[in-house]
Structure formats: structure tokens, C-alpha cells
Design goal:
- By secondary structure, the chain is α/β, with parallel strands linked by helices.
- The chain has a single domain, classed as Vaccinia Virus protein VP39 (Rossmann fold).
- The chain is built from five helices and seven strands, in the order αβαβαβαβαβββ.
- It has helices at residues 2-8, 27-34, 47-59, 72-77, 99-108, and strands at 17-21, 39-43, 65-68, 85-90, 112-123, 135-143, 146-154.
- Strands 3-2-1-4-5-7-6 form a seven-stranded mixed sheet, sandwiched between helices.
- It is globular.
């Protein structure tokens, strides 16, 4: 699946600012960095996984990746601060119903660049959640019990 994803993302990884929500081992964000992404923020609520990811980044001498040890919802609630993301990996633990809230917070707090891509991975039995009006699925595939989608996110700038 990872090979398929990065084939889909050709032309969108180099110089990307990535957000790896529910990072776990950080495989997707690390792959993006290895393919030329400028930076990746890894969000992981599990203390052991976050620590292992920080150790891995140090051992690789990778200062283009940072780890945020927070639940994804709390991380997203604070807003993006000074930076927005052109590529988001949304691969929450199965059975936790975390996708819709994550999508809603990404849109509500303007986390994304004008033409961002979002990779979504979920159980194959689930229906794709409600997407903001300007977002559209551009690729979708199922493998075994996993459905994965690539979504183009046309963001609307907040009104000033």
C-alpha cells in the first residue's frame, strides 16, 4: 500500500510540509522525508511510540522531523500556528472512530495549504466520512480489510 500511495503522490512530496497524524512508527512521514519532503511533524499519543520515533530521528540525524506527544485531536485543536501542511497522513487506529473529528479539525482550524493532499486509511467496511465541500477523493483502493484514499483538499482561506 505504501508503494501505491507514494506512486499516487509523485510530484507532491518534494518540498512538502507533512503532518503524520497517529504516526505510530512514523513510516509514512519518514518515507516522505526520504523522498524530499522539507519537514514532517509526527503526532503520536502513545509515549513509547513517540519516544521510539524521537530516538529514530536522532539516530538518522534528521532535524527535518519533529515529534509531538499529544492526542491528535488536542494537537489539531490548537491550530497550525505559523505553518500549514501540503501533505497529511491520516491513519488512525482502527475501531476508534477518529477520522471524522480529525477531518473536521483540519478544516476548521485551516491546517492545509490551498491544494493539499490527504491520505486516509481506514477499515474497508467503513464509508468514507463526510468531507468538506471543496475536498474530493482523487484515488481510492481496497486491499483486504483496509480502504485507502487520496483526497485533494482545496482549502478556503479564513475571512479577515
Amino acid at each position: 500500500m505504501r508503494e501505491t500511495l507514494f506512486n499516487w503522490l509523485q510530484g507532491h512530496v518534494v518540498d512538502a510540509h507533512c503532518l503524520d497524524l497517529f504516526a505510530g512508527s512514523g513510516a509514512l512521514g519518514l518515507e516522505a522525508l526520504s523522498r524530499g519532503a522539507t519537514r514532517t511533524v509526527f503526532v503520536e499519543s502513545n509515549a513509547t511510540a513517540a519516544q521510539q520515533l524521537e530516538t529514530h530521528l536522532r539516530s538518522l540525524r534528521c532535524d527535518s522531523g519533529t515529534v509531538s506527544h499529544l492526542p491528535a485531536a488536542r494537537f489539531l485543536e490548537r491550530g497550525p500556528g505559523g505553518g500549514n501542511y501540503s501533505l497529511v497522513f491520516l491513519d488512525p487506529p482502527f475501531g476508534k472512530r477518529l477520522i471524522q473529528n480529525s477531518i473536521d479539525l483540519l478544516e476548521k482550524h485551516h491546517w492545509l495549504t490551498a491544494d493539499a493532499r490527504l491520505y486516509l486509511e481506514m477499515e474497508s467496511t467503513l464509508v468514507v466520512p463526510d468531507l468538506p465541500e471543496q475536498w474530493q477523493i482523487i484515488r481510492e483502493q481496497t486491499a483486504g480489510n483496509v480502504r485507502y484514499c487520496l483526497i485533494q483538499c482545496h482549502s478556503v482561506s479564513p475571512e479577515l
